[in-house]
Amino acid sequence: MALTIDCPFAVRILTTFIRDELAKFGFKKGILGLSGGLDSSVCAFLAARALGPKNVIGLIMPYGECFGSDVEDAREVARVLKIRSAVIDIAPMVDAYFERFPAANQVRRGNKMARERMSILYDHSAREKALILGTSNKTELLIGYGTIHGDTACAINPLGDLFKTQIRQLAAHLGLPERIRTKLPTAGLWKGQTDEAEIGLAYVEIDRILYQLADERESKAEVIARGFAKAHVEKIMAMIKRSEFKRQMPPIAKISARTVGHDFLYPYDWDK
Amino acid sequence: MKVVLAQAAPHLGNIGKNLELHLKTIDRARREKADLVVFPELSLTGYKLRDLVETVAADPERSKEIRELRLLSKDLAIVFGFVEERASERGLFYNSAAFCAKGRILHVHRKVFLPTFGMFEELRFFAPGRNFRAFDTPWGKMGLMICRDFLHYNASYLLYAGGAETMIVISAAPGRGLSGGGGFASSRMWELMGEAMGRFSQAFVLYCNRVGLEDGAAFAGGSFLFNPMGRRLAQAAYFEPELLICDIDLNEIRKARKNWPFKRDDKPEVTLEALQRIVHGLDD
Fold first, then answer.
1. In terms of domains, do A108 and A11 share one?
2. Which tens digits make up the pLDDT trace of A250-271?
3. Could you tell me if residue A190 is inside a domain?
4. Do A60 and A98 lie in a common domain?
5. ipTM field
């Protein structure tokens, strides 16, 4: 099965990536948001292995009491790993804002929460001299299931080339608590939300379709010929297309002899 | 002959640090009483240079770092990778490999096949080389290839036809795909080529790949040596720095070519004529 990964080897690469990338930029510490969900927990496990638990900070940022058990799960991850953690309730900041805009819908509120968490993470990143570890997986990146400048914002992303179902494999390999491995994935944008209900497809199917489309570069017709429902394939293709802006830097009007990001091209790891 | 493949992680865009890495490694190779030490592709500069290419370019006749390596090659042959820009060809940058021995540069190979697809963008920044030429060394004729060159089997053939008995490949091949089980899926491709080219060119194949990460790309390592019967003599770990040390017996070339006379029976003139017909469209 093409989505099955060699977990011990993946862990070796990802921990080296975290350690090397931080060292290149002169950092010893990593910081990340802990939601109590699968992705951020796996990222915390990898970071603790890569950097040592003392050098990992997990910020738990619930919106009030809304997601009680998730906070407990996030605390459990911090406890198991012996990493530093803190709980910061984002309700006062978010509520203060929406008192002025009470008509805002769920999506606006959810995005605001994601960006509030981002803002707190960046502030703590400066305070702690710790780089932000991203937790967006390949499935989310491809279908655009994330808030731009919110949960997708980070300094480095160890998980971005792993599909959701591959993160599940890693979670089992790393020995994450059972509760976290088996709970339904949620972006935590509102109470009772689950990713799969919102997207309308199961991750197992999304990943298999994405693998054929993205990794194997197959056409829509080829993927449908494999037996996937036409409507599902089309839905995923539409999601990929609609979210391209989330995967790129904003276009710059190119009027000079040399434009940043276009032909002014230096490696990220420039002289590191 | 004792060979050392230096599966190292060069620093991106920093020749000073990389020279240090070379000097240390050469020192270790010398203590191992090695005859030849091979570094990976662009070992003096790092791989993903993009617009840094011009800032690290070196003229092999004038560069003080290359001079230092050349002088160190008096009693130990050294193969390394660098960005080449000659005073006679200003503004043209090549992804090159140099073979130094007896204090001289015996050969410089310019990478011919510059990958420009997927994650690779070499043609944006480098000029392509135009030749594969076998050259004389104290250990018989050898040939150099750089990374993607090796995946075009006509490159190995040209070196073989030119008399090479040892093929040296320096590489910066990232690993892709984790479904292989034990290392990257993409490593199999290189190993298959190593085995086939060793066996059917009846030559030693020395493949030195780099490790480390650049902008998230993980270089796979897994450097290897195949003998002229296509037998794997040694292989380094995937994704870990390693000094792979291996004794090779050059008599095996004779043995392989005597027992299976592919080389004796080769007909390069048939290849040449057929290629001319293909290239010039003389076939119907």
1. yes
2. 999 999 999 998 999 999 888 7
3. no
4. yes
5. 0.91
